[in-house]
Amino acid sequence: MTGMRSAGIACLLFCSALSSAAAQVVRGRILEELNQQPVTGAWVLLLDRNGRTHARSLTDASGQFVVRAEGAGEFRLRTILIGYRKWESEPLSLAVGQTVVQDVMMGLVRVALPAMTVEAERTCRVRPEEGELSAVLWDEIEKALEATEWTIEKRLYRFRSVVTSRTLDRTLTVLSDSTHRRLGYSDWPFLSIPADSLMEYGFVQPAEGGPIYYGPDAQVLVSDAFLDAHCFRIRRARSDTSTVIGLAFEPVSGRRLSDIRGVLWVDTTTTALQTLEFRYTRLGRWAPAEQTGGSIQFARLPSGAWFIRDWRVRAPIGRLTGTGVRRDTVLFGYLERGGRVVEVLSAGGEPIVRFEEPPAPQN
Description:
21 strands, 2 domains, disordered N terminus, Immunoglobulin-like, ten-stranded antiparallel sheet, mainly beta
């Protein structure tokens, strides 16, 4: 019933009876305002009056997009392109079963990073104010995280990966390791649960077979619960010649649960998210925090879709010693898992891009 328009009372009654099955569609193209060339790899969001996202679409090589609303109402289009300022349309009304065609002339205005200050490095702030360097970085990071989540949800690509699993002793010497190849759709590489639960019970939670170490997925990182429980500060790159800048996060003062702290590294020339690094906190004296945690490297396909290129996570293994009131936990070693994408294919199996094989794991 997409595109059906009312024609007389009979059709109005018919459309009303089947309104739950009707689709409300906005389709069109995103074009650059100056030269009217198609904008490829831009994200188009359909937002209702309350700002809730009803649909997301990625523009193709000709700049085309299609988004579908869950019901009739008033909506706005928001166009997002990493490295550029957001664009938002005037309100548009969608009737039941209506299709609206709208081309968007988008002015591509580069995001400018504010100057880094000593205060920005020293001060850890919850919800940085608009215009601050940390707020601008977070806005670009959020775009990349949402884009990666879209790739996972849509299953438009399949990924051939080399996956490793290793057991290390307390000195990080390899006790056992295995490597295998996997072909499938993308998913977040480590176990996570809703942010509200993590904030209430911690990132490390007891279980019958031993503690479960949860990691931060995209939905956790952009959630209000996580943002309210963590503060952010600017982190300089490790090298003076590096082109990245970090947005570091850590639990707010007073949190007593196991949590995470880390850095989101952003390319200063493109404002594209490159890497997420994190470490667990408040694990207990037996588990060295600096040896735990994980990392994710992000990458972008020619289509504009984002995906997880490389990942690793390491958790400590404890062993109980002693008896009675003298029982204690000591460090036995670590369990480490990781993976790297070596080829990207379409959902139908057509090769898109290949990468070099990962080197053999080192201690």
